[in-house]
C-alpha cells in the first residue's frame, strides 16, 4: 500500500511530466490499436481472395491477366506502399497474373495506353488524374472500339477519388476502402459508365468520367490549400476572401446543345445461330434470280442546336455516373448553370456544399439535359477548367456524350445500395 501511495505522490509532484506521459501513452495505444485493426482487415480480405484462388480451372484455361497502371506519386507519394500492402496480396492470392506498370511523370499514362497489349482486365491504381489519363489514352487508340470492351477496375489511391463513390462501399478507413475496391474486381460484376469527349479547336480530345467545371466555385476550390492554418474554417475563409477581391464573380458564355437521345434497351450480346445449309442455298438462289430492290437513302434531318446566352457564377457539364445502375430512358449529359444572383452568404454556403460534392446543384440552378453541347467562352480572361479534378486552360470546346462506353467493376454491396436509393 505504501508503494502505491508513493507512486501517486510522485505523479502528483510531477504532474506536468505525468500529463505529457499519459497523453503520449494514450496516443501510442490508439495508434497501435489502429494498426492492429488494419491488419485484421487485410487478413480478412486475403482470406476471401484465397477462396477465389482455390477455384479449379480446366487444363485449357489460362490464368486471368491484369495490367495495373500505378501512379506512385498519388496520395503524396504513398500510393506505391498502399498498393503493395493492401491490394497486391489480394490479387496474387486470387490467382491473377499481374503486370504492374508504374508511371514516372504526369501524362505518361496516356502514352502507355497507346502501346499496351490486350489484357483480360485493366486496373487503375491512383486518383482522378491517373484515371482520366488512362481513359484518355485508351479512347485515343485506333482500336478503341474493341479495346474499350476490356473491363476496368479502379483502386482508389489518390487524394481525389470521385468515381469511387459510384463503385465501392464508402468507408472512412483507407485500408477497408482499398481492400473492398480490390475485392470488387475479383467479384467480376461490372456497370456501364458514360464518358464525355471534350474537344477544343486544335488539341486532341480529352475524355472524362465525372465532368467539367468552370467558374467562381472552381477557382476558389483551387486556393483553399493556402489557408490550411485556419483548420476547419479554411473553406469559408477562402470563399469570403475571394468575395473581397472581386464581387460579383460573374462569367459570361453561350451554350449550344442537342436534345437527349433515346436509350436503346440493354440486350445481352448474343451471336445469332447459323441457318441450316439448305436454307442458305435456297436464300442465295432466291437473291440470284430475284435480286432485292435497293431502298432509296433517307434524307437525314439536320441537327437542331438550341443556343442560350448565360450569365453565371459557375457552369458545369457532367455525366450521370453518380448512380450508374439507375434506369434511364434517355442518354444524356447534364449542363448545370448556377445563377448570378447569389448573395455573399449564399455563395459561401453553396461553396461548402460543392467542396463535398462538385456535382451538387441548388434549387436556383438551371439544369439542361443534352446529348452534346458547344461551350463558347470569351477569348481572353476565361481562366481554367477542372476536368475530373485536373486543371486545364479554359477555351471554347465541344462536349459529346459517349453513352455506356466503358465497363467498370462494381461492388455488389454498393450496387444494392444504389438500387435502394433509386427506389
Automatic annotation (TrEMBL):
Record carries keyword Lipid metabolism: yes
Cellular component annotations (GO), alphabetically ordered: mitochondrial inner membrane; mitochondrial intermembrane space
Catalytic EC class: transferase
SUPFAM superfamilies membership: NAD kinase/diacylglycerol kinase-like (SSF111331)
Pathway: Lipid metabolism; glycerolipid metabolism
Topology with respect to the bilayer: Peripheral membrane protein
Major localization listed first in the record, in broad terms: mitochondrion
Coiled coil regions, renumbered to chain: none
Top-level taxon: Eukaryota
Molecular function GO labels: acylglycerol kinase activity; ATP binding; ATP-dependent diacylglycerol kinase activity; ceramide kinase activity
UniProt-listed GO biological process terms: ceramide biosynthetic process; glycerolipid metabolic process; sphingosine biosynthetic process
Subcellular location: Mitochondrion inner membrane; Mitochondrion intermembrane space
Transmembrane regions: none
InterPro entries on file: AGK_C (IPR045579), ATP-NAD_kinase_N (IPR017438), Diacylglycerol_kinase_cat_dom (IPR001206), Lipid_Phosphate_FormReg (IPR050187), NAD/diacylglycerol_kinase_sf (IPR016064)
Catalytic activity: 2-(5Z,8Z,11Z,14Z-eicosatetraenoyl)-glycerol + ATP = 2-(5Z,8Z,11Z,14Z-eicosatetraenoyl)-sn-glycero-3-phosphate + ADP + H(+); 1-hexadecanoyl-sn-glycerol + ATP = 1-hexadecanoyl-sn-glycero-3-phosphate + ADP + H(+); a 1,2-diacyl-sn-glycerol + ATP = a 1,2-diacyl-sn-glycero-3-phosphate + ADP + H(+); 1,2-di-(9Z-octadecenoyl)-sn-glycerol + ATP = 1,2-di-(9Z-octadecenoyl)-sn-glycero-3-phosphate + ADP + H(+)
Keywords carried by this UniProt record: ATP-binding, Kinase, Lipid metabolism, Membrane, Mitochondrion, Mitochondrion inner membrane, Nucleotide-binding, Transferase
Residue intervals of the DAGKc domain: 61-202
The enzyme's E.C. designation: 2.7.1.107, 2.7.1.138, 2.7.1.94
Co-factor(s): Mg(2+)
Family to which this protein belongs: Belongs to the AGK family.
Record-given protein name: Acylglycerol kinase, mitochondrial
Originating organism: Oncorhynchus kisutch
Amino acid at each position: 500500500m505504501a508503494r502505491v501511495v508513493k507512486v501517486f505522490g510522485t505523479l502528483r509532484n510531477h504532474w506536468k511530466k505525468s500529463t505529457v506521459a499519459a497523453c503520449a501513452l494514450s496516443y501510442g495505444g490508439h495508434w497501435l490499436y489502429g494498426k492492429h485493426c488494419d491488419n485484421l482487415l487485410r487478413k480478412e480480405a486475403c482470406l476471401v481472395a484465397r477462396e477465389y484462388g482455390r477455384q479449379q480451372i480446366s487444363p485449357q484455361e489460362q490464368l486471368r491477366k491484369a495490367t495495373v497502371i500505378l501512379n506512385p506519386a498519388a496520395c503524396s507519394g504513398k500510393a506505391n506502399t498502399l498498393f503493395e500492402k493492401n491490394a497486391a496480396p489480394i490479387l496474387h492470392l486470387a490467382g491473377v497474373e499481374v503486370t504492374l506498370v508504374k508511371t514516372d511523370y504526369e501524362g505518361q499514362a496516356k502514352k502507355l495506353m497507346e502501346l499496351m497489349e490486350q489484357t483480360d482486365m485493366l486496373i487503375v491504381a491512383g486518383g482522378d488524374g491517373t484515371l482520366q489519363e488512362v481513359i484518355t489514352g485508351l479512347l485515343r487508340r485506333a482500336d478503341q472500339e474493341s479495346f474499350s470492351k476490356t473491363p476496368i477496375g479502379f483502386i482508389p489511391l489518390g487524394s481525389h477519388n470521385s468515381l469511387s463513390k459510384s463503385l465501392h462501399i464508402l468507408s472512412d478507413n483507407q485500408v477497408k476502402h482499398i481492400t473492398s475496391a480490390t475485392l470488387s474486381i475479383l467479384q467480376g460484376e461490372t456497370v456501364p459508365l458514360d464518358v464525355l469527349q471534350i474537344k477544343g479547336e486544335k488539341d486532341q480530345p480529352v475524355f472524362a468520367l465525372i465532368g467539367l467545371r468552370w467558374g467562381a466555385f472552381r477557382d476558389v476550390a483551387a486556393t483553399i490549400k493556402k489557408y490550411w492554418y485556419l483548420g476547419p474554417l479554411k473553406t469559408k475563409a477562402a470563399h469570403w476572401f475571394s468575395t473581397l477581391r472581386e464581387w460579383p464573380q460573374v462569367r459570361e458564355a453561350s451554350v449550344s446543345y442537342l436534345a437527349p437521345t433515346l436509350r436503346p434497351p440493354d440486350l445481352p450480346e448474343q451471336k445469332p445461330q447459323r441457318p441450316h445449309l439448305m436454307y442458305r442455298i435456297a436464300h442465295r438462289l432466291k437473291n440470284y434470280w430475284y435480286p432485292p430492290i435497293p431502298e432509296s437513302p433517307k434524307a437525314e434531318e439536320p441537327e437542331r442546336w438550341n443556343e442560350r446566352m448565360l450569365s453565371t457564377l459557375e457552369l458545369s457539364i457532367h455525366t450521370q455516373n453518380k448512380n450508374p445502375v439507375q434506369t434511364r430512358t434517355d442518354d444524356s449529359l447534364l449542363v448545370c448553370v448556377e445563377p448570378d444572383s447569389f448573395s455573399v452568404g449564399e455563395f459561401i454556403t453553396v461553396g461548402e456544399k460543392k467542396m463535398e460534392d462538385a456535382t451538387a446543384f441548388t434549387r436556383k440552378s438551371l439544369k439542361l439535359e443534352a446529348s452534346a453541347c458547344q461551350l463558347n467562352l470569351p477569348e481572353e480572361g476565361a481562366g481554367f477548367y477542372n476536368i475530373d479534378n485536373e486543371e486545364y486552360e479554359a477555351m471554347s470546346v465541344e462536349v459529346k456524350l459517349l453513352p455506356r462506353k466503358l465497363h467498370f467493376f462494381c461492388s455488389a454491396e454498393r450496387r444494392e445500395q444504389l438500387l435502394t436509393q433509386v427506389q
